[in-house]
Amino acid sequence: MTTPNWDDWQFLLGEWVGEGGGVPGQGGGLQVFQLDLQKQVMLRKNHVNFPATPERPAFTHDDLTVIYPDPSGAMRAIYFDNEGHVTPYTVSASKDAIVMISNPEPNAPRFRTTFLKGKNGTLINRFELTPPGDPDAFQMYVEGTSKKK
């Protein structure tokens, strides 16, 4: 088995402290990207705290993404979170952007997660989704900027 080429992913590696906002509200947290299993996979662990608002109590969101090559060499990812979501993704990478898109399913939303290399060593995270039944109508749900710790 050959080791995947992680060259385009190097800008992600490390610990990132971030803040962002969107439908769930303003939040801050930490995400970590690291190679694991002798560089066969990349792990992303994410922890975000959302403060209380007049409409809802404070809450925490935790998720884990495992990025890996499938048998053909195409990059895939699988996402898990503390709300019970499990989402498989197809992944594309360039030196400045990583884009993960879920497969369309009938009558279900579709998801797109993007990590962009920002200015001055920042990382921009975007999470978009579509309305059920409209698999290409992505709408911003959460966006945030992180700085390397």
The low-confidence parts are none
Helical segment count: 0
Biggest sheet layout: 10 strands, antiparallel, barrel
Report mean pLDDT, rounded to a whole number.
Answer: 91
Number of DSSP E strands = 10
Q: End-to-end span in angstroms?
A: 33 Å
Question: Largest sheet, order of strands side by side?
Answer: 1-2-3-4-5-6-7-8-9-10
Beta-strand portion reads: over 45%
Radius of gyration: 15 Å
Globally, the shape reads globular
Order of helices and strands: EEEEEEEEEE
Q: Percent range for helical residues?
A: under 10%
List keywords for this structure.
149 residues; mainly beta; ten-stranded antiparallel barrel; 58% strand; globular
Structure description:
By secondary structure, this protein is mainly β. It starts with 13 loop residues before the first strand and ends with a strand. The chain has a 10-stranded antiparallel beta barrel. The protein is built from no helices and 10 strands.
Blueprint of the fold:
Elements: E1 14-22, E2 27-36, E3 41-50, E4 59-69, E5 75-81, E6 86-93, E7 97-102, E8 111-117, E9 122-129, E10 139-148
Antiparallel strand pairs: 1-2, 1-10, 2-3, 3-4, 4-5, 5-6, 6-7, 7-8, 8-9, 9-10
